[in-house]
Each structure stands twice: as structure tokens, then as C-alpha cells.
Known about the structure:
- This protein has helices at residues 2-14, 17-39, 44-68, 70-76, 147-162, 167-172, 174-179, 185-218, 227-255, 259-288, 294-312, 332-371, 375-387, 390-417, 452-478; strands at residues 81-82, 102-103, 105-106, 111-112, 122-123, 127-128.
- The protein is mostly helical.
- The strands form three sheets. The protein has a two-stranded antiparallel sheet with strand order 1-2.
- Helix 5 packs antiparallel against helix 10 (259-288).
Amino acid sequence: MIWHIAKKEIYHNLMTLRFALMIILLPTLMVANALIYGFGNSGYREEVNTYHRAMESRLSHVKNNAQESLGRLAMRGPGEIYKQPSPFKFCADGTDELIPRSIPIVGSGAARGGGVTTAYHWRELWTLEYLPSNHGSDATTLIKIDWVFIGIFMSFFVILFTFDAIAGERTKGTLSLMMSNQISRGQMLFAKYLGAFFTLMVPLTIGILMNLLIIYLSGNIRFDSGDSLRILGMIGLFALHISIFIFLGLFFSSRVSNAITSLVWLLLTWVCLAFIFPSLLGLFVGTLDPIPSIEIVSSRKRTQLANIEDEFRPMALLEVTKLSEAPSPDNPSATRRWATYFTRRYETRTQIADTHVDQQFRQVRLARELTQISPIVCFQYAMEGLANTGIVSYMNFVKQVRRYRQTFIDFIKTEDRNDPESLHIYPVREGLSQKPVDPNAVPRFEERLSYQSVIFPVGLLILFNILFFTAAQLSFLKCDLK
């Protein structure tokens, strides 16, 4: 009986104008997505070529410094670290144009001298610098036709397929007739759910297959053997997302007396979940926890570095300073004093930069936690997590770069201990080994994908399904059949 009613629902949906619109618009959007991301001028292949050129430049930087000496490599650092482009940007764009694609190594490029001493010219020890987001990009004004956008578009179509599922039957007087058969209300509700679900999933599956075929034929986006599991996971997210709005539609359709009222309530709820709640909560977080501007942070850094300079600078013209002697392998005491000076500057610059970006990340995490009150936002975050795009992928990238920073420093210190002629004083070039080091032995940065950010939104999507199913079930049990 359940499947009989479900087939009746599917047949009825196939004969409607809304299905005709969906079967045209959905594949059209999927094809447009494939053409934009598969053949676009700024597509994945161009990003991959740029990434490989950057990696070659970075490896050349490490090789040149390592072949000269370990001390030079320690001061110059590993070079700019780039984030690997994601082949699944067409699924969840994540506004990657606004997110930095690399973390530069700064401070080692300019020779210094004459500040605390005139007898020694030195280079600032390398540190990580976090680039600001590109808020001025034109990408902020463009609608990205990715799978996330198509998923939001589909949630709107779900409303059109479910707003009259029960209220319409009640108005026509067929609901009481159907319930006169040996079928419970729960079975009736489940049959209505199956009819809407299969009606929506069939054109979606066709659109996805067309999308993947065009992208494959373009030859610009390559997939690994394990990427099929990620695609299946995204299709599963579509199913969870659609299921939520089917239950929501059945809930309102069973609560009100006519289909028009149900449609109005569903449209209002959809607008709130898709636009109003995420925007208001994001604005609330921005005012709740304001972040210091770059100008304030830069001023704070200049002040603290100036205090360090004053500590090591002579107060009088003839006064002997802590850094009046240049570091050298023959003068360990002077080299240690320079190491203290370099370390103080390095720790100050690192602490200020890390603290500022951590404040931004805390605000992002808080905003994400609050905006996940909307299942549409949960769907978006889960898709970005599987695609490895968006701000969370950049946050994971920063964490891995910081771990690599410590790995690189530990490598320098370990290699230096193997040289008996070295003073073993870090981070001064003259205090470290002056012998070359094998470039292939230098640890390389490898970005590892993390799917931890997917677990929470997927759990919420499942919870939303359970809650809305329960609400629809209780509402239908109490509703009047006439």
C-alpha cells in the first residue's frame, strides 16, 4: 500500500508544470556549472599550473640556500608555502577568490644594519605572514553556480512539490477517502515522502551525471581513485538536504487548512533559513567580537619592536652596547647575545601575527556555529568540507603550516648538532653549521586533507531530518482529515 501511494505521487508529480520546469532548469544549471569550471579561463588547470610553478620556485629557494650552508638555510627559511588547489571547487566554490592561496615567508629579504650596531649587517630571521582576505575582489558580486547553489535552488523546488501534499488532498476531499483504506497515518506520510523524494532525486542524479561527464571530457580537472567516494558523499548530502525540506513541507501542509497558506509559510521559512538567519547571526558575531584592524596590529608590532631596539641600542654615543661586537664562530659570547636579540624579534613578530589571525579564526568558528541553526548553511559547510574549499580549509592549512614551521626549525637544530665545528647557537647564521646540507633531506610541506569539519554539519543534517520527521508525524496524527 505504501509503495502504491508513492507511485501515485510520483506519477502525479511527473505530470505537473513544476516538474517540467525542474527537469529543464536543473540539468541546465549542472551543464552551466560544468562549462564554467571545466572550460573557464580561471579554471582548475590554470590553478594547478600556477601551484606547480610556485612549488618549483620554492624548491629552488631551498636548494640554493641549503647548498651554501645550514646557517643560511636557517635564516632564509623554507620559502613561501602554497595551498594546494582543490579539484572539487565546482562542487563548493567556498569564495576561494577571497581567501589567501599562500603563506609568505617574510623578514629574510632585506639586509639591516646601523640600528643597534654599525659593525654588522644582518638579515631579519624568517617568519610567517598571513595575507589579508581579498575583500575587494569582484568575486563578491558574482553568483557562483556550484553544487551548493544548486542545492539551495533545489530546496526551493522541494517546497513547490510538498506544500499541497496533504492540504491539497484535504481540500479535494481525497485524504479521508485514502485513509479509509487499511493504512495508518504514519504509512501515508511515509508514502508521500517517498513520492516527493524520488521525484526530486531522479532529475538531480541525471544532472550530476551530465555534469561529471562534461567535466571529464574537458580534461582540465583530474580526479584520483579515492575522489569517487567524495562525490558519493556529496550526493548523500544532497539527499539529506532534500529530505529535510520534504519533511518541513509535509509539516506545514498538515498544519494548515489550505495549500496557499502552506506555501506562504514555507516560503517565509525558506527565506529565513537561506538568507535572513545566516546574515543576521554573522553580523551579530562581527559586532560581538570585533577584531583589531591591520593598522592597529602593525602599530602594536612597531611599538614592541622599537622597545626591543631601545633595549639593545646605546643610550650615549660612546656607550658599549650588548651588540657592539659582531657574531662570529670565534666569539661565542657575542653570538649568543645576537641570538637573544634575534629570538626576541622573532617571537614578537610571530606572536603578534599568530594572535591576530587566531582572533579572526575564533570569530569565524563562532559565526559558523551560530549560523548552523539553518540546514541550508549546514549543507553548504558540509559540501565545503568534502571539497576542501572555503575558510575552514584555509584554517586547516594554517595549522599544518605552523606545525611545519616547528618541523623545519627542529630539522635545522638536529642537523646542526651533527657538526662538531658549530657553536650550536640558533638563530644566528654564524652560530650554526657553515657546511652545506642535502636539499633532499630538508622536510617538505605536504598538505593533508581533513574531514573533521564535515562531521558536525552532517550530524546536524541528520538531526534536522529526525526533528522535522517527528514534527510532521505528530502534526499529521493530530490534523483533521476533512
